[in-house]
Amino acid sequence: xxxxxxxxxxxxxxxxxxxxxxxxxxxxxxxxxxxxRQVVTQLAAVSKALNRAGFAIVVSAMKECLAxxxxxxxxxxxxxxxxxxxxxxxx
Length: 91
Prior knowledge:
Elements: H1 6-31, H2 36-66, E1 72-73, E2 78-79, H3 80-90
Antiparallel strand pairs: 1-2
Helix pairs in contact: 1-2, 2-3
């Protein structure tokens, strides 16, 4: 369920682009035989950027779930339990 708020979409898109740039730098570092510390630092940065984007997506979905106290969103095909599983997958 992608966020519907344009500002949230923009933030997520920016985070993903940042992660993409960091991943490109990571690949170059590995191909260039970079120091282990540099590689691990870049790997951590990519991971953090992806996690932050994922959390932003889940939080957006959670906000939308609050509008439906039953936790069922047949139009999106997601339940509160599924949303919880998505959140935990990122934790």
